[in-house]
Amino acid sequence: MSVTAGAIAPETLRRLVRVALDEDLGGDPGTDLTTVATVAEADRAVVEVRARAAGVLAGQVVWGPLLTDAARRTAQDPPVVELLADDGAPVRPGDVVARLTGPTRALLVAERSGLNLAGRASGIATHTHRWVQVLAGTGVQVLDTRKTTPGLRAWEKYAVRCGGGVNKRVGLFDTAMVKDNHASAAGSVVAAYRAVRSRWPDAAVEVEVESTADALAVVRAGGRYLMCDNMDLDALAATVRAVRDLVRDLDGPDGRVEVEATGGLSLDRVRDVAATGVDHVSVGALTHSSPQLDLGLDWVG
After folding, report:
1. Average of per-residue pLDDT values in the chain
2. CATH of the structural domain 137-288, one choice from 1.10.1760.20, 1.20.1260.110, 3.30.1060.10, 3.20.20.70
3. Among all residues, which ones are annotated catalytic?
């Protein structure tokens, strides 16, 4: 799989770059004390970004905007960026994924920010790909969640796509999700669903359920996306069967309710979860617990 730069908004990349460089340099334009003291303004270099571990690459799209901004801050020409692998591509230890040529000061200023962002994204893509591989052939999609690093949601969800996963809602604004606290506030899960549907008739609505009875009540009320939270395999399978039977009676053979399993999932049991008939599994660990993929920047000239 290959993911192009069009998959993430250019302004999102520019914002990430600004924040990362401001953090490292103490503002805009900021100062790299060591580099200014040790590297002549006219010095130039060629460096390579290498994978130091096996995984799935993500974050290549950051190098161009990052080096352009670093060069602006150091009052130099932007380095030339040669990407040698696409986001979404598998990498092995030692693979050269990018070659960067230009002013040494700009390259050094950008180094850690670039490796942080690309390593974080590649780690998420690698972890996501493991889930995708385990579920291959089941037809079940791997979804991410809102359990993301503040300020990095768009970047981390992009990384999930690079690994073959599917993005769930972006935030509170684009999809209504009725959870247990909403149900408590409204009096019941069905009352909460009806309140959301009444206030936002055109919005996508997902409803978290913890029992077969709640799932059937929501479907009878019109709900067509269920999140089965922390159900054991027997309960999950029974819920899926009951929901499918009910929808067939209500909506006919073309009726459809999407069912998602969430909570307490692991790689060693997710195929068993898929066998219950769910359409999706959502995994918060894709973004909150993925280890960084080790990438390095090596001087070659």
Report:
1. 96
2. 3.20.20.70
3. 112, 147, 179, 208, 229
